[in-house]
Design brief:
mainly alpha; two-stranded antiparallel ribbon; 14 helices
Length: about 400
């Protein structure tokens, strides 16, 4: 058993705003305390025999760090379903034992695959050289010195090469951001903007003295998303930004679109918008929060996990899919459907709501048997599109929108 779980229930805001209505709950998803805990399962269950994560593992299947993090949990479940026949056939041909998962194990594995996209690809020597150019082009050198060259307005960064974590850089820059802004205005230095992997390259350059890293620093412990949610309220971020429609409107909603970003790219976005945020907070009389310890890591981890959740699915579309995708041939639900497979009515109990991980675990563990039965009955393996699992879950639960 896990020592404790992070229960992120719909990302509702408790401190500053009313609870999000039940219909807005973005699924009660139980996550492991450390999103990297699934890494051990990835080894133990033999997943790395076919798949790699960040280049580590097999090449029979795709590198999952390139495929998981820009998809919600239900979209990941749909992808697993779609590729199962091919995966199972390959495993049978190669004599690879078919692994089975408990609900907890599946939760850990899905969170690990999703969170693998949080980390940046390691910077190369060429990337570090780009970082050196950026140090001058972005104006950093006008205020900061490095190895005896540069300005003296800000701190000398020569000894900062031990700070490998980009999240720590974000915390330091945020805490001192308004002071930096004022000094840059005085010196007529424009606020630099970072695109793509530029922030990663800059950090890699400043980390020069410890290059190449003695260990993969990107695998340092991630933040705690649940703690980040609490800080999101406590630090008054919710006064400016909304999540699933709840929160302030001074800044953009953080869930209107899905961001396909790594940790340093997220930090780059925060940096780019810092002057505008500071100005709006001053105009609104909101005191700019300070972050200490691992607080910024928790906040960034929370923001990254927003993409893991779905908006409520369409129960009407889910009902249509239940019959179109042939689920009803084997499964019964509230008096409709077949009896060959388990009856799904029990999952309509709102007190014990169906979670995506339940779907993933059940489908994976029973997929070999389902494949045999479907083949015997000449039923084609249905393909699930992007939001189909979410809509099917809304129908099974008896919740969600009806459009």
């Amino acid at each position: 058993m896990l020592k404790r779980k992070l229960l992120i229930v719909g990302l509702f805001i408790l401190l500053a705003f009313p609870t999000i209505p039940r219909s807005i709950l973005a699924q009660e998803i139980t996550l492991p305390e450390n999103p990297l805990m699934g890494r051990m399962l990835f080894y133990q269950k033999g997943c790395l025999g076919c798949h790699s994560v960040r280049g580590e593992g097999g090449n029979v299947g795709p590198d999952l760090s390139n495929k998981g993090h820009n998809r919600s949990v239900t979209q990941m479940v749909g992808t697993m379903w779609n590729h199962f026949p091919k995966m199972y056939q390959k495993m049978s041909q190669e004599g690879i034992p078919f692994p089975r998962f408990t609900t907890e194990e599946m939760a850990e594995l899905l969170a690990y695959i999703y969170f693998a996209g949080y980390f940046d690809k390691p910077a190369t020597t060429a990337d570090r050289l780009k970082g050196m150019t950026l140090f001058s082009e972005k104006g950093c050198k006008k205020c900061h010195s490095l190895d005896g060259a540069g300005g003296d307005v800000g701190p000398d960064l020569t000894a900062w090469d031990r700070f490998a974590s980009p999240v720590l850089w974000a915390q330091l820059m945020w805490n001192h951001g308004s002071t930096m802004r004022d000094k840059m205005i005085t010196k007529n230095i424009p606020w630099p903007k970072f695109e793509g992997n530029e922030m990663r390259d800059l950090v890699a350059y400043i980390y020069r003295a410890n290059w190449p890293p003695k260990q993969d620093v990107s695998y340092s412990l991630p933040g705690n998303p649940a703690e980040g949610k609490r800080l999101f309220n406590e630090k008054k971020c919710v006064q400016c930004h909304s999540i699933f429609g709840t929160g302030g409107k001074i800044g953009p909603s953080l869930t209107d679109k899905r961001y396909d970003r790594t940790v340093t790219q997220l930090i780059g976005i925060m940096w780019n918008h810092a002057p505008g945020m500071f100005e709006k907070m001053e105009l609104a009389g909101i005191q700019r929060p300070q972050f200490s310890g691992g607080e910024m890591s928790d906040i960034v981890s929370f923001l990254f996990f927003l993409g893991y959740f779905d908006r409520p699915g369409s129960a009407d579309n889910g009902r249509r899919l239940f019959f179109v995708k042939k689920c009803a041939l084997c499964h019964g639900l509230r008096g409709e459907g077949g009896k060959l497979g388990p009856n799904l009515t029990k999952y309509s109990n709102i007190e014990q709501p169906l979670q995506p991980v339940h779907i993933a675990q059940a489908m994976w563990n029973h997929a070999p048997l389902m494949a045999e039965i479907m083949k015997a009955r000449n039923i084609a393996w249905p393909r699930l599109e992007e939001n189909d699992v979410n809509d099917l879950m809304a129908f099974i639960r008896g919740t969600g929108s009806n459009n």
